[in-house]
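Hi R.,

Here's the input for the adenosine monophosphate complex you asked about:
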Amino acid sequence: MADCLFCRIVAGDIPAALIHQDDDLVAFNDIQPQAPLHVLIVPRRHIATVNDLTAPDEVLVGRMLRTASAIAQAHGHAGRGYRTVFNCNADAGQTVFHLHLHLLAGRGLGWPPG
Ligand code: AMP
Ligand code: ZN
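And here is the predicted structure with adenosine monophosphate in place:
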């Protein structure tokens, strides 16, 4: 989608600090990090929200989580722990309507979240 920020990052039209790329996914540092490690894992294909996932996307979502785990491990955070979050729509504070998985690590993360 031409007017989608993350589609433009995936296409290389807007720069981002890339952490990982493969045929289906791109991961890059969040521009406003909320933890020492804050990475967004996004599918190359435009999917607006978690509500828009369909059964064939189940493998893709699993790969998003496994990619988050691999990045956390590569940065030395697997043992102490990390958080993965999908925000969906207004009450969760979703601001970019291209599916993305937040990976947060490197500090104690409070619960419940705000
Ligand atoms: P959400 O609130 O779940 O929709 O998360 C959107 C995230 O995208 C926020 O954490 C923003 O800081 C992040 N973000 C917005 N613009 C950019 C950008 N150009 N590059 C990297 N991250 C961004
Ligand atoms: Zn998009």
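One thing worth noting: The two ends are 31 Å apart (CA to CA).

Cheers,
M.
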